[in-house]
Amino acid sequence: MQFIDEVKIHVQSGHGGAGCVSFRREKFIPFGGPDGGDGGKGGDVIFTVDPNLSTLMDLRYRPHLKAGRGKNGMGKDRHGANGDDLTIPVPPGTIVKDAETGEILADLTEPGQAVVLLKGGRGGQGNARFTTSTNRAPKFAQPGEDEEERWLRLELKLMADVGLLGFPNVGKSSFITKVSAARPKIADYPFTTIKPNLGVVPYKNYRSFVVADIPGIIEGASEGAGLGHRFLKHVERTNILLHLIDLSWIPDRDPIREYETLNRELALFSPELADKEQIAVINKIDLPVVRENLPAVQEWFRERGVKVFPISAATGEGIPPLLDEIARHLWGAAEEEW
Predict the structure, then answer these.
(1) CA 108 to chain centre
(2) What's the whole-model pTM score?
(3) How high is the pLDDT of residue 48?
């Protein structure tokens, strides 16, 4: 399924039905009086969270959406039917903004959450409503109220507990494949991952957490370089960040410089994102070159108070202690401490 995380749509609520001007006409009842019914209410525009959705793709191909119009009132005091509401399902983590002003209208995060963003027009009252002691045969009724319409911009920020960060080819996709049932594309060239991937990681005692694999970020990502700038927003909702580091490229690439560069990009994109707790995860320790350079890099991180976990996404070495550390952050304790 194609991953779409931004769409622009035009939505319109329903116009209210008009009230009816009618008079009772029956044999032997010469002055039956007014009996015009009210018009029906126009349908509302409602956004609701569907936990089974993970993309805004459906809305990309339906940019114009309209609720039902209220039916007009009729004679014999018959009211018009209300217009059908327009219910728009969106995935958890969807932010609804006014497309012109950028104002946030709704932040939809909880499954089942529903928000009425545009109200349908009220139905007009029929002439039966306007009888008085001095006007016993009113010949007028109210028109229905106008509908509301608006251009909206929908942005999806994935809901995940843990976000994976790192330069291209550091092993993020291999890691999420190892710890979950997610199966992203894995290859030995940059930008293999071109869309975020979510994986549910089973932990102990039937607990689990969600990990988001974000496409590789490079220098200048906050200004639009590479692919990562499009997806940095998806790690804003995470509780903790795993920063994967690859030492196997030494001396062609400097892992410390890459770590500092990526954190600088996070700060430029969002200071709040840069302040999230991070764990440094040194991957590929099954390779001799990584084991050779591991002590010096570990010491560099420890001097700066950053937790370090050496792992191998290929063999699974070191992953259980890392999952325990994530559990301590998410739930306050690892399984063996409960």
Answers:
(1) 7
(2) 0.72
(3) 96
